[in-house]
Amino acid sequence: xxxxxxxxxxxxxxxxxxxxMCPECGNSEFKKVALSQKGKVLTYTTxxxxxxxxxxxxxxxxxIVELDRGIKLTCRIISPGGKPPDIGDEVSFVxxxxxxxxxxxxxR
Length: 108
What we know:
Number of strands: 8
Order of helices and strands: EEEEEEEE
Low-confidence stretches: none
Structural class: mainly beta
Distance between the termini: 24 Å
Radius of gyration: 15 Å
Helix content: under 10%
Mean pLDDT: 93
Largest sheet: 5 strands, mixed, barrel
Number of domains: 2
Strand order of the largest sheet: 4-5-6-8-7
CATH architecture of the largest domain: Beta Barrel
CATH class of the largest domain: Mainly Beta
Strand content: over 45%
């Protein structure tokens, strides 16, 4: 699966869909843009007390990953052995599942 963003055809700002109107200029016309499958961890937290329905997955890591062209994306981060990632670690896009983005930490 390719990771994509949408770009406003008027001002060129990038967004992760869905977006129906550009907050920057008010335009409603977008085009799809392919993004790199790789990014870096900007920050993360480890969820130890999960919400209902996620109890069997804890502990797990949720973070913000910066992709090419400055796009920042909230996602689940899979790391080897369940160890927390380090800030600045490289990650690779794995899947989008029920609206959630999943990235896997690359070898350190």
